[in-house]
Request: fold
Amino acid sequence: MTFTLRVTASRAVWIAVICAATAPGARAQVVQRNAQFRLPAGYNFAFYDTYPDAARSFYAAHFAHFGIYEVLYRSGPGDSAALGRLERMIRDYIARPPRLEPPAEIIAPSWAKIAWRTASAMDWTHMLHSQLYDILTDDRVMDKRAAGERAIAYYLSNPDAFSTRGYGHAFMLGGGPWAATFSATFPSLNGILWAYHWHHAAVYEALMEPDAASRAAALERVLGTFRDSVLADPPRSMPLTAEIAPRFSAMFPAAAHIFDNLHMMHDVVNDIMADTRISLDQKGTEIGRMLGLMGYRGQDTVVPPETPAHAHGHMPAMRPPTRLPDGRWLPQGHPAAREHDHERREDEP
Reply:
């Protein structure tokens, strides 16, 4: 019996397109785009519903991160006019936040083609941000630690979840020759991003207050401080979550490290995209390499780089988590961790 395969002209065109897209060296490799929805729970969206101004205040940050990637991909770091227009848009969104937050590939469609897994991992981690804000907001959640740990465990079921290890600023400063390119080249834009890293953590600490009225007052102070002080005089280094939110980080040390690694990956992508020595094809490969190093799946075998001697002297080096006498762990940068380490050194013979 003989079978004949009939290929129409239109099918031939699609076959050619697919072959071209999957050919070695093609800039936008075909990647299977699976998606995972947030953990179903009654507390979902409680933060947005209860504190809409605080919830919407984050959206300019996410637009800034992915907008920078897209401009650097499309125009390159030499297009100061395009980057200037983007900064004005970001500052306008800070003053008048959008009502909804689009995903990464809506803001940065071209960049997402070379780094879709990284874009997906960032969006997935922003979802964990949202769920932990919801848990801390919703007074119907009686055991917030248990609910938060369940949300974190669900987050870690995604293959592109970020690591729960505390790497400090190791990959930002020692991940490759591109390290610190963006902060040195675009200090004004970088200042906005680091101010927002402070903002994310400060909102967590405000939500640790015991009742709705106290939380609302604390959030108002955070929003005011962010607008009036932190944006005007941004941090000189990327803030670590535990430094800004010690109570939150003591309750959820794994989340504190996850968010530090997310923020560090944002900075890593900025540096890679801003480095003119790296071609667009190489940028996607290098971003993917760094995602693998900073992911949860491989954290037990990854050896983070040493902070180079020439790096910013005021930026903290890697600080491992601290084990307390009762068996609990405090994340890197936690004030109580530093006090405990000092007491331990004094007790040593």
